[in-house]
Specification:
This protein has 2 domains: 20-156, Rossmann fold, CATH 3.40.50.10130; 170-237, no CATH class. The chain is 42% helix and 17% strand. The chain contains 9 helices and 8 strands. The chain is globular, with a radius of gyration of 20 Å.
């Protein structure tokens, strides 16, 4: 997409000292890590430390982040913990990601081949559908955590839209909304308007059970996640 396009939205990094009434729960094993101090410097005004059953940071009650240093990443790859953790993160009812902190040199100095590391990253992304964010230092990790949360908020507000112009006519807007759903697209033709109303009513009846993912692997999301987002988006179009 052309960066000069009016529809282009580049991620906006948080500014130091900017007020941010956002609750971030950190696992108590992260208590002494500089990431927490960096989050405070970036303006996070609310947070607590407790034992999390999964992940290292729970952002806004929804986004789950597992942070691994280069050494931790390689150690978990060798002993087999990496993919079992990835499977649990993938089953989280909200969005989740793995944050890999450290330089390429740090990764390559841990005694594991580059091909093995690349294979692990490919498996995380393509098999477990788990995004991997890369940072070099704790300050960058803190910024990425907040940027990821902001991007999710923008999606919930429909600020990250599908490419192209938005139709003005009601029927065209309805078709565009339906074609944007998983496994539905322009190639399926023009469905009747009734199908769109059925889709919206289905979201009304099951706001917490919208299923997303691949054809063979689905994840259920709670009512404050994708299901509620689809419900509201379909309602506006219909």
């Amino acid at each position: 997409m052309n960066p000069a396009s009016p529809h282009h939205h580049a991620p906006e990094p948080p500014q130091a000292g900017e007020p941010m009434p956002l609750e971030i729960v950190a696992d108590d094993r992260e208590a002494g890590q500089p990431v927490l101090a960096a989050l405070t410097r970036l303006g996070v005004t609310a947070g607590r430390v407790e034992r999390l059953g999964l992940g290292d940071y729970l952002v806004g009650g929804t986004l789950l982040v597992e942070r691994k240093s280069a050494r931790d990443f390689i150690a978990s790859l060798i002993d087999g913990r990496l993919f079992s953790q990835a499977a649990r993160l993938a089953r989280h009812t909200g969005p989740s990601c793995l944050l890999l902190e450290g330089s390429g040199r740090e990764l390559s100095s841990q005694g594991v081949s580059r091909e093995a590391i690349q294979g692990a990253l490919i498996t995380l992304g393509l098999v477990f559908h788990l995004p991997v964010l890369r940072s070099v230092v704790p300050e960058e990790s803190a910024r990425l955590i907040l940027m990821a949360w902001r991007q999710l908020i923008r999606q919930d507000r429909d600020e990250i839209g599908r490419p192209g112009r938005r139709p003005r006519r009601r029927k065209r807007a309805q078709l565009m909304a339906l074609q944007g759903l998983p496994f539905v697209g322009p190639q399926t033709g023009g469905p009747p308007v009734g199908a769109i109303r059925v889709c919206a009513k289905s979201a009304d009846r099951n706001p917490g059970r919208a299923r997303v993912g691949s054809r063979n692997q689905h994840h259920d999301h709670p009512g404050n996640g994708v299901g509620a987002w689809l419900k509201e988006r379909n309602r506006r179009a219909v």
